[in-house]
Every structure is written in C-alpha cells, then in structure tokens.
C-alpha cells in the first residue's frame, strides 16, 4: 500500500486576457487582427493572438492538495486542452506525484511510435509535468528548486526582451528608462525593426553606451549566408548574442552560421525535447540554447540544460506569454543549473500578469527574484477566472 497522496484529478482551463498593445508592439503596415483574434506579423510571417492566451493545468491529489501547471496556448489552445482532457489526464490519475519524471517519460512513450515528438502533444505534456512537480513540492513542503538537484541562485540576472514601441526613438527611450531602473541587457526584435536591423543596434549601442549587453532576435528571417553577412555588419556593435537567424528546420544553415560568425549564436525557443537539441549540439550550431518551459516542462528542461552543459553550451531560457506559472517553473529550474548566466524577461507580459498570481516572484533592478514557498510558490488567484475562455469557442 502506498499511503502518499496519489493524483485524483487533472483539469484544464483556457485563459485569454485582453491586451492594449499586441505582443511585439503596435500593428505594423499591412497588419490586422482577424475574426479569430489573431494577427500575422509581416516581419516574420508568424501568427500571434491579440490577447495573452494561456492554458492552465490543475492537478489535485487525494488529500485535496493542488498543483498548478501552465503551457503554451497562444494559438488554438483547444488543441492542448483536448489532448490533456482526453488522453493525458485520465492516464495520470492514480499516479504518485513523486514520480514526476517517470510520468513525463510514460506520457511521451504513449504516442512516440505514432510520430508525436513535438508540437501540441509536447506542450500538453509540459503543462501536466509542471503541475505534477508543483504538487510534489507542496506535498513534501519543499520549493521546486530543492527537488531539482539543489539551489545555486537566489536571484537570476535578466535581459529586457523586446522594446514594444512604434519608433526607434521611442524604443531607445524605453531602454533608457529600464537602464535607469538597474537593467543592463536589452534585446530587440527583427520582426518589428522597421528602421533597419543594423541601424537599430547602432542606435542602441551609441545611445546606451558601451556597458550594456545588446542582443537581437533575427526571427528566423534569413538564409544562412544572408545571416552571416548581416551578423558581420552587427559585429562592430558587440552583440552579446544573436538569435534564430535561419528557419527552425534548417540544421545545416544553423551550423553554417554558427561556424562562420564571431558572435555567440542563440537558438532553441521552439524545441521541446532533448532529441531536437542533440543534433544541434553535436554540430556545434550554437553557444547558447533558449529552452522554453511552456514547451518543455520541467522534466525535459532539466535534461536539455544538463546535456547542454556537457557540451559547454550556456542556457538562457526563453520567456513568453503566460500568467507566470511556467515562468516560475523556469526560474526554479534555472536556479538549479551551473550554466545559466541570465533569463529572458518578457516585461510587457510578465509585469502585467503578475496581478493574476499569488507569488513573491518579481523582477527588479535587473534580476528575477525566485518565488518563495513549496512547489512553484506561485498559483493563480481569484482575479484570473474572469478571463476564462470557453472550450470550443466559435
Ligand atoms: Mg525569439
């Protein structure tokens, strides 16, 4: 007999919080919001919601203790909730939450021979995985970081991600404002760099001075040779890294860029598992990887990060749209690792959505402060439930 509380239910919720300014900044020329509330950015041909849309996962134990998870639901969130409600949840009921990583492996095994190695299936597993780890931490009254091998950091340096203002002048001013508050690292987005990618880095470097770290997300826009040429033009402004130069499938292009430039290359916000990371590590395609907790979950995140460390590659985790649950998981995981110099700070999402969670997590003076308390130390509060989007919304 096992007298430790077992998992008794798994539930999902779609959350959609309206935004004034869309993610990445105001609508650009030729951009519009469609009838489903999505817009396609001309700069990178990618689709985004006009709200902050996320999927929450609630895992309850037999004694009533609740663990919370969150995963990507920014487009077609019903795909993720259907997978959890119909497939993952029912087979997770009855499992022991202390077996979090074993359960993650079992959920992956169920569909691997059908070819589900990524995408929505892995996002769904990530949400369940985070919730089980949170439940485990609460049931043993330990913060998640202590369950992941030990704690190296109390706070984690950040870079400010995105300067969502309409003009380059306004973006420089936004960076100045952050700098005055103790932030010293900034990344801008090629998809909305309307005044020119090289010009934007020049203006930021000259305006902010030699002491700041500057990065650019190239948003998968270029062929390998185009990217190499562009990055050589950025080099005089000393980028700390450049991100995602080529399309996500182009392993050879990524490896070519990595070998041909003299600037650190960062890749990987779209990857879900070690199996996507390994071939890039073997080819020395990059010197920084950017795992996204909302895609990987905790179990895969830790394996990816430890494998990167074996290749002497740094981890600078990605941070995206969510209410803060997978963000908290990412901070706990990061705090346990030896190869994480900083974490992305998606300020336009994180700061605003902090009001919807109970947490001591915050970002101030250039660093994330880890949430206190058992598990993630971060839970949705009452105010988030006003933003529930009905499943199957037409
Ligand atoms: Mg990116």
Describe this structure in words.
It is a single chain. The N and C termini lie far apart (47 Å). With 394 residues, the protein is of the alpha/beta class. The chain has helices at residues 77-92, 100-112, 119-139, 144-147, 168-180, 197-208, 224-234, 251-260, 274-282, 293-310, 325-335, 347-353; strands at residues 7-18, 38-41, 46-49, 51-61, 66-72, 155-161, 185-189, 213-217, 241-243, 265-267, 288-289, 314-315, 343-345, 357-359, 362-364, 367-369, 378-380. α3 (119-139) crosses α10 and α10 (293-310) packs parallel to α11 (325-335). The longest helix has 21 residues, at 119-139. It has twelve helices and 17 strands. It is 37% helix and 20% strand. The chain binds magnesium ion (MG). Magnesium ion (MG) is lined by residues 217, 243-244, 269.
Give the SSE map.
Elements: E1 7-18, E2 38-41, E3 46-49, E4 51-61, E5 66-72, H1 77-92, H2 100-112, H3 119-139, H4 144-147, E6 155-161, H5 168-180, E7 185-189, H6 197-208, E8 213-217, H7 224-234, E9 241-243, H8 251-260, E10 265-267, H9 274-282, E11 288-289, H10 293-310, E12 314-315, H11 325-335, E13 343-345, H12 347-353, E14 357-359, E15 362-364, E16 367-369, E17 378-380
Parallel strand pairs: 6-7, 6-13, 7-8, 8-9, 9-10, 10-11, 11-12
Antiparallel strand pairs: 1-4, 2-3, 4-5, 6-16, 14-17, 15-16
Helix pairs in contact: 1-3, 2-3, 3-10, 5-6, 7-8, 9-10, 10-11
Bound molecules: magnesium ion (MG).
Magnesium ion (MG) binds next to loops.
